[in-house]
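Just curious: can you write whichever protein you like plus the matching structure tokens?

***
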Amino acid sequence: MTTWSDKILQLLRRMNNFYLPDSSRTTCFRFELGGEQVGWVPSNVASILSKFPEIFSPPRCGAITLRESFDSYEKRSEAVDDVLQSIRREGCLTVLKGWRDEKYDVMPRFCDTPLMCMERSATSLFGVKRYGVHINGYCRDENGELRMWLGRRSKTKQTYPGKLDNLAAGGLAAGISVKDTLIKECEEEACIPADIAETAHPVSTVSYTYEDKEGVFPESQFVFDLELPREFKPRIGDGEVQDFYLYSMDEVKEVLVSDDFKPNCAMVVLDFLIRHSYIQPDTGVCLKESALWPQH
């Protein structure tokens, strides 16, 4: 019989499968800009990029980079966007069918100056790290027990339609701060006023790297806990969420390991459960034996 802990370990391994022994990591090329690695290029993508020798230098020592003439943020961004638009027109990479017209900054580390920006839907083709903001919304019932608000994604979402999600969350677009993203997503997705959203506490980051047929996904989420007034009820805003539910923590633990939960959002909720002592490392939970135990 598969236990709850076993299912959690399956989740952790799924969300970090790029570093498992049977992943494609050994066949990927490093994507480098300015002499520093900013991503991973799968071999099938590298073959397509080789058709644009005026933009990309031939792979050398396991790395792919841009021609030296592209020596600024603007030049790099424009050149790569031209390539992506060309590939998109050819229709050979299905991930680009989800084109968002939203740019993500590309840099070695979050604290570094961005070296270029890239269309959001294309980031997995270059394995560049994506950042986001996720909000754990919760309240206390009349007995002081925590209850968590979860949203159900719209059936029209491009990714994971109809799955359970955090109260609010969103990717960190180029030029937009973490705080502004927090306030924006709370307002747009759950109609949470800015004066309430601003009371959210930054508590951790949750990072992982997974791969699937659409590429490599290194991601790091800035996690906030937002305690809401007991009488407050989130409302559907921009249509990205179709409903909200208020669950007890036991119910949260149950749905967390179901197929009904968006996997990366489940990681964020798992982090909440650990921080609030709903999971203990000494009570038989085998997470303590895994190197994937969330780090703070």
Q: What stands out?
A: The radius of gyration is 20 Å.
